[in-house]
């Protein structure tokens, strides 16, 4: 009897396993947001089922919305669905597509994992444990990030079914045809299949494991199994044994956040799929598709698609992707010559027409992807079909703005006007770009926006309804200013239009114009700079009679007025400035001029010397240079800057002679050059310094000022592959100012007195725009320090330090801070990018303050009606307060009458503003009451973190 019961139990167990075996081939769960006013989403579950299994999808299903709501079993899943039932469609290859939808509203922003689980997978999945795989549940997850700062979002949609079979020894290719309706960036990753929420399948072997396959198509080894992170091509090259295999991958979506300044992960969709491998004798069909292209929105795109098969088999050609999914004016994929859209097997070669009438709603920054798929049909009906995929990228570009004109308003302002923009309903912004001198280019063939290194700079952007703009941003006489405008479309779809036609305006030259600031001698004490300028060629000499006298003024740095020095008063227009430290810093110059009556008329624009920077590489040197000048350094009439170097002899020993080694095409490549010795075929050696200087060529675009303007940089020496880091800097501490040592998270911290605390008495209570300034010294032993890195920790903890800025000077001002609290360390970086150790830390702390009154009069006269912390005048404000806990007691201090805590409210009021009512809202009579206020401050010094205020307050009505 016992043996019969045991046998019956075993049989029932096998029956239960068979009942759960769904024979799911693949599946994914996607979502779209269906409400603009609430967080309501529609989820679509797609299951690809083996039609020969006879098992119904959903019997063992469980849907978890990740927020407490769970649907379990087919009756509950169908009852809660949009349509009330699963729908099933046969799509060939012994596969049917089962679809069901649900709607769910999330409570608020957050990251949610929505999952679907069904019992169980097939038996005998080779890489999932073989015979025991029918005990492993099928599980897929979709992650949704709901973030108000990232706008409305839905998940990627997968348009190509995973139904293709594989052949032994032949490369298997699958692409999900992912399309994101929001235009977000997609990325693909292989993952381990799951059997429950966050639980990977064990055992699982990737398809390139040697026990699974060691071969590749065409011979050779090892096998390869990967997914292209950008295109989504899943490739297994190649299966070695017949059988069923299982893989999974995720499709991530990324969106640029203007708040964080980086791309943020919005979530992902998982596709879990089977690959059935069979033995076959077949060659893969081939596809011929166009090259990637751009098309201007509003025009029609047509292209020929052609498929062939080496075996002469009939072929089926299909097309998937975004152009077929857009809401308006979807693309067509038609058979030639009949122009019908029936998808069936056709004799090869099979030709097809892709046709898409685009419109403005299709504009986006990322190209639309069209996935073409070809499948052959072998003569043997039981033989597996082979497939191939080809991807075509189509970028739909916004048309260029039209009608741009420019007119001089005054000597320092130019008015621009343009036509109403044709795609204004999509709410782009209009960007205004400016450069000195004309720059000719044709905005077509995907050359959208403003070309890199063209010298155009963004002046401003305006709302799309605005069709005029006044440019008064540092315009100078004698300069030919040229403009283009570009429409920039909002995220998440984004998109940049073609640039408008260029317009130029030449401002009359009625002031001197500096033409040369050229370094003629490099030295830390004896440097020399040649300065030259023009006279005011177009000045009204009746109003301002000549002869003119000039004052030449020098300043330190690229710009600004630091180190102002009057060099000369002269009637000449040239000057040699000597005795300078041209090795370590640039200088900028300005010319002031006077008329015959010694009246100061005006001054020129400032112009700096050219500063060369270098970075040592392995047997090479990276050069870059810059200058802050009123003329353009990237002119098409003289587009090359000249590169000079010493040690050009075969032995690299000639230090004294500088030879022109090459030129840099700055209109295409920018102000940079890479020297690896290619100019003479002699590679750079790592055991010596090479020295360089650059000759720049520029112009004002003014025919009255001859061009090119020739100016040299300083000489700079750098050693390739230098691996010796500089000495670490030392942050300066003023010995006359007190310091304090406090206990920090990882040991003692040195806190400096912060002079900003004294200034707070003049700032409003809401002020929260602080800054800290640090200075340091550095022993530049090898004379090769290129910059300093500044690291900041808001807590003083070692793990919290992060890079917040760089400086070429030995000082740094950290601005835009919400508080003063934090610690700093500095490192030195040389021209080979070697970074020193970090300096010792110095810290600043907040200066907390809180004061309460002793009387208030809640009589509704608008004066002193609440018990409120001081908030100026007299410079008294709650400063750096994190929380306040306030309690009021009767005069004997025994009975609590009222309490308030900022931790109990979403909008904390650190001023308290008690109105004289008790906790029940009853008005208290005049009298004296006792209170306590526990205030927590945001400080490094934990001894000052919590303060308790106890006192009497007189309530007078």
TrEMBL record:
InterPro entries: FN3_dom (IPR003961), FN3_sf (IPR036116), Ig-like_fold (IPR013783), T9SS_type_B (IPR026341). Residues 398-494, 511-599 form the Fibronectin type-III domain. It comes from the Bacteria. It holds the Pfam family CHU_C. This is Fibronectin type-III domain-containing protein. It comes from Roseivirga spongicola.
């Amino acid at each position: 009897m016992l043996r019969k019961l045991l046998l019956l139990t075993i049989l029932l167990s096998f029956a239960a396993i068979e009942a759960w075996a769904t024979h799911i081939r693949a599946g994914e769960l996607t979502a779209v947001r269906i409400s603009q006013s609430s967080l309501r989403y529609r989820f679509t579950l797609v299951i690809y089922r083996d039609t020969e299994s006879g098992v119904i999808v959903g019997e063992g299903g469980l849907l978890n919305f990740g927020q407490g709501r769970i649907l379990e079993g087919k009756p509950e899943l169908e009852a809660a669905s949009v349509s009330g039932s699963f729908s099933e469609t046969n799509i060939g290859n012994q596969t049917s597509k089962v679809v069901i939808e649900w709607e769910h509203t999330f409570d608020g922003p957050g990251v949610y994992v929505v999952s679907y689980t069904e019992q169980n997978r097939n038996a005998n999945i080779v890489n999932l444990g073989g015979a025991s795989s029918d005990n492993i549940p099928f599980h897929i997850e979709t992650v949704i990030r709901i973030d108000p700062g990232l706008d409305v979002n839905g998940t990627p949609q997968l348009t190509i079914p995973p139904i293709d079979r594989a052949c032994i020894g032949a490369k298997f290719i699958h692409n999900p045809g992912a399309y994101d309706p929001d235009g977000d960036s997609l990325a693909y990753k292989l993952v381990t299949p799951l059997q429950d929420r966050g639980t990977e399948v064990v055992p699982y072997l990737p398809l390139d494991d040697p026990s699974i396959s060691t071969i590749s198509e065409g011979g050779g080894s090892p096998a390869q199994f990967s997914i292209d992170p950008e295109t989504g091509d899943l490739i297994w090259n190649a299966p070695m044994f017949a059988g069923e295999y299982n893989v999974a991958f995720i499709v991530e979506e990324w969106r640029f956040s203007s708040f964080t300044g980086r791309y943020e992960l919005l979530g992902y969709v998982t596709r879990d799929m089977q690959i059935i491998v069979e033995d076959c004798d077949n060659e893969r069909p081939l596809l011929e598709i166009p090259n990637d292209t751009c098309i201007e929105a509003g025009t029609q795109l047509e292209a020929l698609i052609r498929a062939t098969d080496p075996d002469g088999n009939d072929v089926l050609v299909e097309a998937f992707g975004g152009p077929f999914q857009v809401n308006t004016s979807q693309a067509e994929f038609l058979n030639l010559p009949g122009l019908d859209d029936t998808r069936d097997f056709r004799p090869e070669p099979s030709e097809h027409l892709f046709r898409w009438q685009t419109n403005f709603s299709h504009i986006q920054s990322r190209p639309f992807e069209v996935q073409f798929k070809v499948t052959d049909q072998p003569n043997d009906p039981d033989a597996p079909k082979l497939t191939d995929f080809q991807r075509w990228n189509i970028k739909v570009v916004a048309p260029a703005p039209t009608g741009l004109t420019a007119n001089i308003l005054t000597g320092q302002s130019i008015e621009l006007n343009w036509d109403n923009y044709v795609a204004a309903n999509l709410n782009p912004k209009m960007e205004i770009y400016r450069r000195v001198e004309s720059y000719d280019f044709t905005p077509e063939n995907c050359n959208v926006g403003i070309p890199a290194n063209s010298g155009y700079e963004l002046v401003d952007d305006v709302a799309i309804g605005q069709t005029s703009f006044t440019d008064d941003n540092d315009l100078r006489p004698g300069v030919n200013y040229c403009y283009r405008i570009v429409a920039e479309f909002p995220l998440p779809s984004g998109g940049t239009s073609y640039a408008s036609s260029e317009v130029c305006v030449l401002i009359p030259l009625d002031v001197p114009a500096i033409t040369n600031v050229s370094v003629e001698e490099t030295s830390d004490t004896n440097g020399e700079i040649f300065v030259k300028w023009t006279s005011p060629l177009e000045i009204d000499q009746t109003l301002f009679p000549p002869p003119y006298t000039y004052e030449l003024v020098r300043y330190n740095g690229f710009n600004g007025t630091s180190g102002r020095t009057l060099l000369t008063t002269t009637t000449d227009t040239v000057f040699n400035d000597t005795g300078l430290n041209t090795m370590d810093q640039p200088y900028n110059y300005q010319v002031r001029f006077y008329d015959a009556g010694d009246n100061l008329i005006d001054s020129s624009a400032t112009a700096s010397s050219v500063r060369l920077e270098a970075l040592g590489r392995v047997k090479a040197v990276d050069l870059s240079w810059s200058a802050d000048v009123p003329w353009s350094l990237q002119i098409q009439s003289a587009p090359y800057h000249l590169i000079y170097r010493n040690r050009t002899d075969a032995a690299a020993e000639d230090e004294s002679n500088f030879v022109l080694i090459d030129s840099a095409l700055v209109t295409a490549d920018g102000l940079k050059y890479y020297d690896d010795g290619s100019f003479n075929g002699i590679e750079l050696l790592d055991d010596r310094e090479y020295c360089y200087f650059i000759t720049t060529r520029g112009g004002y675009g003014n025919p009255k000022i001859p061009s090119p303007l020739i100016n040299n940089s300083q000489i700079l020496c750098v050693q390739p592959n230098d691996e010796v880091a500089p000495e670490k800097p030392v942050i300066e501490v003023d010995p006359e100012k007190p310091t304090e040592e406090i206990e920090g998270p990882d040991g003692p911290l040195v806190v400096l007195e912060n002079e900003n605390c004294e200034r707070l008495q003049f700032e409003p209570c809401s002020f929260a725009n602080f800054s800290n300034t640090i200075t340091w010294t550095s022993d530049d032993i090898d004379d090769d320090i290129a910059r300093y890195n500044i690291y900041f920790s808001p807590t003083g903890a070692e793990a919290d330090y992060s890079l917040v800025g760089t400086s070429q000077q030995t000082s740094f001002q950290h601005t835009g801070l919400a508080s003063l609290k934090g610690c700093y360390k500095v490192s030195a970086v040389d021209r080979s990018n070697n970074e020193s150790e970090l300096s010792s830390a110095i810290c600043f702390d907040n200066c907390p303050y809180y004061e309460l009154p002793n009387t208030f009069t809640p009589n509704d006269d608008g004066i002193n009606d609440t018990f409120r912390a001081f908030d100026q005048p007299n410079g008294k404000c709650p400063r750096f307060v994190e929380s306040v806990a306030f309690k009021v007691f009767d005069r004997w201090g025994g009975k609590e009458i009222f309490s308030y805590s900022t931790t109990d409210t979403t909008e904390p009021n650190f001023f308290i503003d008690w109105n004289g009512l008790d906790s029940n809202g009853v008005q208290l009579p005049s009298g004296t009451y006792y209170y306590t206020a526990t205030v927590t401050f945001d400080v490094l010094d934990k001894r000052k973190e919590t303060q308790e205020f106890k006192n009497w307050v007189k309530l007078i009505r």
